[in-house]
TrEMBL record:
UniProt xrefs under InterPro entries: NHR-like_dom_sf, Nucl_hrmn_rcpt_lig-bd, Znf_NHR/GATA
Keyword Nucleus: yes
PANTHER family in the record: NR LBD DOMAIN-CONTAINING PROTEIN-RELATED, NUCLEAR HORMONE RECEPTOR FAMILY MEMBER NHR-86-RELATED
Superkingdom per UniProt: Eukaryota
The protein, known as: NR LBD domain-containing protein
GO BP: any one term: regulation of DNA-templated transcription
Alphabetical list of SMART domains matching this protein: HOLI
Record's keyword terms, sorted: Nucleus, Receptor, Transcription, Transcription regulation
GO molecular function: zinc ion binding
Key word Transcription regulation present: yes
Pfam family, one: Hormone_recep
Ranges of residues in domain NR LBD: 43-317
Amino acid sequence: MVFTLEQKLADIRCMCRACRLTKCIEVGMNPVGVRQKPGSFRKSKELISPSSSNHDEFSRMPILSKMKLNYENMRNARKALHNEVGENVFEEKIPKEINYKESVQQGMKDYTLMPEWVSSCFDEFRTLSADQKNILFRNSYIPFFMMETAFLSHINNMPDSVIFPSGDYCDMKNLERYYNSTNFEKKISTEDIENLFKPFYDNYKRSLLLPMMNLQVDIYEFLTLFTLLHWDTGLVEITDECLEIGTKVKAEVFKELDFYLTNVKKVAEPSVRIGTIVNLLPAVHKSVRRIQDDMEMTKVFNIFSAPNEFFDLVTGNF
């Protein structure tokens, strides 16, 4: 049966607002086109999650609540994973500025936690075949990494830094120290840093980090964005079963976020807020493409060499 555009729009109008927004985004709506009225939502005072006197409210958000709990568990696991010799894992880690090589080493270690975290977040993910899991994970890991570093910089109010999952950071105002404070045999010239790397950080800050800070994105909104990144139903390699599961999971998470924004965060127009948050995703993908291009360029012109495993991780060849 072939449906006309009018029939599709009629179906959309009969849905609840969360389902309606999901459907509109799936058929190509640009969420930034949903205009926000002045003062239409309140700014969250607590970045991680607003306080609520009614804990029963969160029983209406089973997926997002489980994701938040497991994300906190992963952050605790990171403390042990990135613990240096002599450090007490039970004491608060003091963040430090690190160089490129150290960030690569940390990234390779942190990557090992991700598959288990994803499996703990989505029961449906565990039922997929190994190749489908790999397709989803391969296409979402680096976008998630880019988005998470921006989120961590945002919640720590450090707009001039890239905060890594370990809690350590790169100073974007001193990239020469980041790239040259290593034991690489070949140093990178200031000119190469300015021309090759600085544009990425400038764009990352302008299009992703600062908008995330301005929107005061909180943990549930951040986890919703990860859900959309992970369950990318536009991937041509996924099966019909995976497509169906991903569509269902995203619809459920949109419903939960709509409930949260309406009843917990007290947003006047949840659909507008959701559309604005979702519109951060193009900036995430743009940042990923840029860093992948930079990695390719440094390899082709032999500007400096990253471990092959890290190169494959960034470019999705794993």
